[in-house]
Amino acid sequence: MKTLFFFFISFSLSAQIRGVVKDSISGEPIPFVNIWVENETVGTTSEADGTFFLEASKQKSIVISVLGYERKTLKGSEISEVFLKPTTYNLREVVILNKKQSKQIEIGDIKNAIFQSFDNGPKIEAKFFPYQASYSKTKFIKEVTIFTDSRIDDATIKLHFYSVDENGFPGEELLTKDYIVTLKKGVIKHRFNISQFDLVFPEKGMFVAYEKLLIESNKTGTKYQPYVLYNYVERDFFYTYAYGKWSKQAGNNSEKISVNEPSINLILSN
Q1: From the first residue on, what is the mean pLDDT of each consecutive set of 10 residues in the chain (270 residues)?
Q2: Which of 83, 88, 135, 234 has the highest CB neighbour number within 10 Å of its CB?
Q3: Taking the model in full, what pTM does it have?
Q4: H and E: helices and strands count for the chain
Q5: What is the Cα–Cα distance from 114 to 147, expressed in whole angstroms?
Q6: Contact 240, 212 (CB under 8 A)
Q7: The pairing of beta strand 16-23 with beta strand 81-84
């Protein structure tokens, strides 16, 4: 009697979604677009030429967003060329600002802090800056600082500036265009002058966040640069943008929680 053996081989295939993001009016590629699998911690960033690839099932919903354009959600199977519509902004009233810059203060500094770095993936992490009445004397945001450890020259990240919405979450962006900064190699506290944006510190407070760009020019091996340094501190709450939305971590019964907070400071001037 002959015995027949049947071998069943199962393959675990991870689908790959490839596409390019373009401006719906000009047709030009859009760089550094935030691309997420909805409700998952899987994401990537479009390259300088707008192209991207994402390890995800084509049946998943993909969230595509970048400052200055309307957010779009598509099935992975629908993605090849993605056209985003530019957002229409109301022009701000032109105001002559009496900026003297003869006085300045740095806020957000943590005394006796221990700095740590993490290989954090596709997410945006925000630091909250509450308003104080004394800021009325130095109400203009002159500089933002961020402490990073980069293993390569010319690593790039995005910085975001958010108002506070009615629920206390990061709300509208205070800039209308992406603010992308270049970082030097080494452990450095970088300072970036943003006085040209004429930002006034909001009376409800504000959030400053960084977004890691998962692009080839930032890649070393399987890791992405730079590593942002963190302070281990106690806070009432902490916000992280993941799963395509902001989530809040908070303690129970008004207790403070211990969190790793990105080492971002602001310098205010008059």
Answers
A1: 48 72 96 90 91 91 92 92 85 62 88 69 85 93 95 95 94 92 95 94 95 93 90 86 78 82 94
A2: 135
A3: 0.85
A4: 0, 23
A5: 12
A6: no
A7: parallel
